[in-house]
Amino acid sequence: MNDSNEFRNKSTTGLEKYKKNLMSLKSSFVGSFLRSGKPTSDKSRAAVVVNNFFLHFHGVKTHINTLRPSYTFGLGLISFFLLVIVFISGGFLMVYYSPSIETAYNGVKDINYVVFGGKLMRNVHKWSGEAMIIFVLLHMARVMYTSSYKRGREFNWVIGIVLLILTFVLNLTGYMLPWDQLSYWALVIVSNIAAAPKELTDIFGITQYFDIGGATKEILLGGTEPGQDALTRVYLLHIILLPFGICIALGVHFWRIRKDGGLSKPDTISAKGNGVASISPPQKTGGIFPTYKTYGLMELAHGKTPAVDNDVENTVTSWPNLFIAEIAVFIFTLAGVVAYSYFIDAPLKELANPLIPENPAKAPWYFLGLQELVSYSAFMGGQGLPGLAIAGLLLIPYLDREPEHFGIWFSNRQGKMVALESFVVGSIVVMGTLVFVVNFGWFRNWWPEIHQMWIILINPGNILLGFVILYSLWVIKRTDSTRMGAIALFTMFLVSYVILTYTGTVLRGPNWEFFWSSSQWPIH
Amino acid sequence: MSNKTRDKEGLSRRDFLGLAAFGTAILASLGVLAGSLRFVKSNVYFEDSKKFKIGKPENFPVGTSRKIDDKNVFIFSSDNGLFAISAICTHLGCIVHPSEFGFQCPCHGSQFNKDGKVIGGPAPRPLEWFEINQEVDGTLFVDAGKAVPQGTKYLFA
To answer: Is A310 among the domain residues?
Structure first.
């Protein structure tokens, strides 16, 4: 007001205006991007969220259940921040790395031994990428065990699985880049897994007409064996296509969380209070799932209170409550990754040698469960079983549509019991199968002449999968609840992944033979 | 005119043309995509020739065997002639090494007997046998692009 009066009353010269603008530069510049100033009321706290590009995909208000650490453990957020760290550290690594089989290995060596902070940067990139696998899986387990894949969130579970796959493939393409022994033999093995449908086409005798496996392999490698073309393609995947894909999938993932009404929460928290009568439930039809979601203000304008579900009284302003929590998670994530990377170095093996594979030639730990399955049948272990496992996970929200116990860990007492039972039974069955295979071998050891079809149809991996499916069905029959079946299925999936991974990592040695520990490996 | 009568008549002309245009757009896009995907399959591979020379027959006295290291092929010489067995495991492409029973793969534990037949582990097929030929000057060469039936042996003067 004073300003405008001043301008109106006094005749000011251009130079005076210029001087005045110059004097107020600091406040006018800061005000130009921080439009609302320091928030002092709920209205201005809302404005902070709405007016800020980086905050605007948050809700203005956040439900207190979302802020309960014991509900989410921040797992999804940690995964996201790990991805941010991966992107930034990866950008730094690109400064010295070039995707040529002549220079790639030396570039990585330079990063490790010559570049200032290079080793730490590479470690951070490597370990946050691997940590993503752990935290994405844990986040998935949280969503699973709290029933958070229901009530409109079915498709977001599907996108979550896409993100899980992308996380695995980004890690895979990442360790192919240094062109060390691990990179080279991973390319050999992965491209041959891509070619594994040959096992099937061979059985039907149609490989010479329809070699889908061979074609996939040659497209992946840009040749018949790993070389410069393969490195170029893997680099393209790792630097452009997959990051682009994960950004889009993640954007949709976040967007749907908002559209679905924020994080899942138990009904018991939202049912209290007397707000029920004052809120007109939104009229939405269409689709097979009930729509529990956030509605735009216009959709609710004919009621009395614009609200998310029925529990405005249980929400707090996102600024500062949510953002402080997010920053805390970020700082702890960054600190954890940097501390781990300071002490533990990312591996780098010898330069790629196409003549001598390492013995044992092991993938990084997160693929060793698959490597164990692949050691039964390349096609089933590398494509069939992972494909079926992913299909099973994708179907969970569509086959279990019981709306009860939403947002409650393990649903109820029965759910806890089912999870515990599945854990115990799953562990025993997986370990039992492994003990059998290690002691007695499999078909090829007993009947070397046996047709490959029998091994594709009946191998230890298939038997485990079949058992998991049958057990889940039995749980559904016994408990009359599809939710209990879902808990059993997912628990057994996690147990199998962990035990198979442990077996591949610790218990397998040279020639993929069984050893209790690597100290027993033969010296050669 | 109500929607009811329109339902009876089936698709309206407007809807039909709209759907036809939409379908054409989708088909055209898929066609472009399919053509583009063909782009990534190279027409030429810049790789070493699969044929390579291994020297004169007298380099392979009966009863000996040799591995041509940079080609991943074993050459055996028996009473019935020479034969070439691939060292590339038919499971997932690792390099097998000789062992007391024949060949052993380090990656996933496939085992083959001395003829390359699978006797254990996950390999779906026996090790490949390759064609051996002789040039006019007497030099032998192996064609690792040309698999021959197991047991094919070659006698050279």
So the answer is: yes
Beta strands of A249-396 (E only): which ranges? 315-317
Q: Enter the pTM of the model.
A: 0.89
**pLDDT tens track for A419-450:** 999 999 999 999 999 999 999 888 888 888 88
* Cβ neighbours around A207 below 10 Å, total: 17
Record: contact A376-B122, CB cut-off 8 A: yes
A271, A313 contact by CB (below 8 A): no
Domain boundaries, position A417: 362-524
Name the residue facing B106 among A228, A360, A455 (closest C-beta): A360
Residues on chain B touching A191 (C-beta within 8 angstroms): 93
Are residues B7 and B82 part of one domain?
no
Q: How many domains in chain B?
A: 2
**Residue ranges of the alpha helices (H) in A260-384?**
267-270, 297-300, 318-343, 368-374, 378-379
pLDDT of residue A418: 96
Name the residue among A358, A382, A511 with its Cβ closest to that of B109.
A511
B71 with B13, same domain? no
Give the pLDDT band of residue A28 (cuts 50, 70, 90).
confident
Distance between CA atoms of residues A431 and A422, nearest Å: 14
Q: Please give the pLDDT value at position A292.
A: 54
- A401 and A304: one domain? no
A319 and A373 in a single domain? The answer is no
Residue-averaged pLDDT of chain A: 87
Residue A524 has a pLDDT of: 60
Residue B17 lies in a domain: yes
Q: What is the pLDDT of residues B29-54, one digit of tens each?
A: 999 999 998 899 888 888 888 889 98
Inter-chain CB proximity A374 and B92 less than 8 Å = yes
> A141 pLDDT exceeds 50?
yes
- Chain A residue with the nearest C-alpha to that of B38: A219
Nearest to A127 by CA among A331, A362, A339, A328: A339
Tell me the two tokens of residue A17: 């205006």
Structural domain harbouring B27: 3-39
